[in-house]
């Protein structure tokens, strides 16, 4: 009997983190031939994750160029993936989440009449321009896919509302928990000496990420000013901010926060040290989507620096709170958690809604069942 040929496509660091443990499971699975294609929509950050999980792509489109637009990425991915699909002829293509690589890889597979499986399916914010372009990418991918691997019951319901047949949807948990549990270690030692010197036990360490396109400009300025005020009000606080490589973000962060002793502006971290930094944090401030999934697994309260989230499960569970981008609101919400131990403990103890670290196992089983390999 011929093996089921499964081709996985991804191109950015977040996709790589969440798909790497799945690729490993596919490589180990009996009856499956795994083929890995990366677009390198991100280059250096992608390579770091590939090295961490010891993955070697079968095809690397290497499309990244500085200053490229969404249209540039779209054209390169569509033509590049088309050529790979014509050579490999997979039975199914797996894509992840909401990047341009995800949507365009799905479109390329559709043009070749190849089945698409969407990992992390069913996330919706309800606003097609926030996050942009991710919200539309995942909606379009959802209508191109034949199989939908939804992390949660809420994601399942979103897909049902959009007319996806329930027999095509599998609730699996989120693969990021699989990845996270593989890399977090209690005795982890950082390469950055600053991170080893910080007193995580006696200080209240806030880890922050802030980079989303919709926060550029005044919202980001408000966020940075709020963080400065927090350190002035709460002397027990230290802030660690791995600053995005975008020069506009870096310049703004330096101008507003660069002279504040309690705020450490550091270079972006690879996935393994960043995951272990989250594990040592007291509180997390972020506009990222993925961190809203990871931090609950570590028991860390999260304040989301956005006006809405496509991950409402964590909000409902109580481990995440959306606080927006207004300075005073951010200061108030952070101060509340720093001074109100009962509210902090309630968020810390909230049950992680994103699974038990066995999502990849469930996806492989679903593929085998669908193609009648079991």
From TrEMBL:
Gene3D superfamilies: Glycogen Phosphorylase B. It comes from the Bacteria. GO terms for molecular function: UDP-N-acetylglucosamine 2-epimerase activity. InterPro entries: UDP_GlcNAc_Epimerase_2_dom, WecB-like. Belongs to the UDP-N-acetylglucosamine 2-epimerase family. It is an enzyme of class 5 (isomerase). Transmembrane segments: none annotated. This is UDP-N-acetylglucosamine 2-epimerase (non-hydrolyzing). Keywords: Isomerase. PANTHER family: UDP-N-ACETYLGLUCOSAMINE 2-EPIMERASE (PTHR43174:SF2). Residues 24-368 form the UDP-N-acetylglucosamine 2-epimerase domain. It holds the Pfam family Epimerase_2. Its EC number is 5.1.3.14.
């Amino acid at each position: 009997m011929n093996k089921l040929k499964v081709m996985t496509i991804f191109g950015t660091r977040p996709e790589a983190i969440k798909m790497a443990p799945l690729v490993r499971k596919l490589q180990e699975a009996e009856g499956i031939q795994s083929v890995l294609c990366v677009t390198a929509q991100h280059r250096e950050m992608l390579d770091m994750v590939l090295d961490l999980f010891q993955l070697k792509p079968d095809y690397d489109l290497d499309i990244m160029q500085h200053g490229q637009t969404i249209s540039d990425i779209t054209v390169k991915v569509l033509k590049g993936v088309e050529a790979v699909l014509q050579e490999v002829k997979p039975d199914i293509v797996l894509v992840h989440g909401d990047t341009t690589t995800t949507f365009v890889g799905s479109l390329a597979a559709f043009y070749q009449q190849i089945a698409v499986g969407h990992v992390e399916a069913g996330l919706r914010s309800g606003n097609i321009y926030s996050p942009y372009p991710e919200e539309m990418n995942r909606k379009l991918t959802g209508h191109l896919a034949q199989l939908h691997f939804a992390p949660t019951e809420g994601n399942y319901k979103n897909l049902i509302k959009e007319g996806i047949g329930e027999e095509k949807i599998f609730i699996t948990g989120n693969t990021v928990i699989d990845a996270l549990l593989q890399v977090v270690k209690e005795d982890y030692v950082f390469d950055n000496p600053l991170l080893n010197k910080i007193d995580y036990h006696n200080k209240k360490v806030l880890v922050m990420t802030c980079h989303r396109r919709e926060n550029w400009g005044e919202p980001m300025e408000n966020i940075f000013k709020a963080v400065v005020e927090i350190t002035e009000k709460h002397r027990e606080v230290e802030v660690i901010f791995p600053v995005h490589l975008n020069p506009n973000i870096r310049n703004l962060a330096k101008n507003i926060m660069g002279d504040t002793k309690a705020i450490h502006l550091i270079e972006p971290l690879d996935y393994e040290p960043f995951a272990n930094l989250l594990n040592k944090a007291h509180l997390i401030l972020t506009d990222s989507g993925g961190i809203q999934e990871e931090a609950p697994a570590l028991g860390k309260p999260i304040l989301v620096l956005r006006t809405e989230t496509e991950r409402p499960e964590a909000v409902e569970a109580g481990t995440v709170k959306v606080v927006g981008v207004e300075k005073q609101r951010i200061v108030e919400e952070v101060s509340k958690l720093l001074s109100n131990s009962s509210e902090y403990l309630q968020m810390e103890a909230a049950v992680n809604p994103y699974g038990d670290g066995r999502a990849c196992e469930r996806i492989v089983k679903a593929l085998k069942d669908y193609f009648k390999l079991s």
